[in-house]
Request: fold
Amino acid sequence: MHLRTAVAIVLAAAALAAGEAGAKSRTVTDPDAPRALPEQGPVSVRWDNPEQFSEIRQSRNRFESRRGNWVEQLAEYVRKRAQKQLPPGERLEVEITDIKRAGDYEPWHGPQFDDTRFVRDIYPPKIALNFKRVSEDGQVIEEGQRNLRDMSFLMGPRTISDSDPLRYEKRLIDDWLYDEFKSTDARRSASR
Reply:
């Protein structure tokens, strides 16, 4: 009986070790991480090398800044929100060129806070992007660069999901889309 238990423990430990070796923690800078969302619908979103984003280059903890798939999550959010506001027949192409998330790491608090992002008004969120709106017949309606920033991001309205670690960046995206498409809404209303 003891031999069976010992064999079972050794096999379980070996399976666990093999699983951990194969389950590498994902980072936004992994070479196999996506650099664009799959083509789907009228909104396409892509980005180049996140290693060059301010979030990583200027971080006081580059290891923590690379963790997760926050670039892809923000790209998906852009697509989801833009699809709701894009007039029928139009396409929107977005290229995210830089991201600096709200908050930063403050190593002077000691090792117990190495992985803690401190969100303070001196660390506002910033997103830089290029975009192109294309009509149904392929004509460029509008294109340009936008540098999204909210210096008073902590004073804005509270969101339903205060626990979302990307809530401030998502609010930047919502504000940009609202500003970008309100003139379209006004033109549509005037033409009715």
Q: What stands out?
A: The chain has a mean pLDDT of 86. Strands lie at 43-47, 91-100, 104-105, 117-118, 126-134, 140-149. The radius of gyration is 22 Å.
